Amino acid sequence: MTTFEKPMPVKTPVSAPFWDALADHTIRIQYSPSLGQYVFYPRILSPRTLADDLEWREISGKGTLYTFTVAMKPVSPHFAADVPQLLAVVQWDEGPRFSTEMVNVDPVELEIGMRVRPVFFDYPEHDVTLLRYEPDPAG
């Protein structure tokens, strides 16, 4: 059986502060004073205002499960050993939504609106840390 190395994210000058924070097991995303909101994905100008005022700020990373799907077929051969995959979108308490994967949970326990907390997965061989989520028993 052929195995494939999983694709990993590539750090860019714009996204580097996000990836560097994950390496420290913290989450930093951009905040726009002109918009008065946090924004995600990393970008150069604030959405809607197009202001050059984006600041990197640390957030808790806690949030709610906005939506999910249980993928019984791998999205590509790279993930064949990972099914079922619990693909999810988390809405951070600070506002933006984040596409991720749920871990440390049985698929039948997943509920839209449940509280979740971040889990950091280090891949030192790729110099990257990935952000996943698990149920937050503290709510």
From TrEMBL:
One Pfam family recorded for the sequence: OB_ChsH2_C
Source organism of the structure: Mycolicibacterium hodleri
Protein's name in the database: Acyl dehydratase
InterPro entries from the UniProt entry: ChsH2_C, NA-bd_OB-fold, Thioester_dehydratase-like
Domain ChsH2 C-terminal OB-fold: from-to ranges: 56-120
PANTHER family in UniProt: BLR3430 PROTEIN
Lineage: Bacteria, Bacillati, Actinomycetota, Actinomycetes, Mycobacteriales
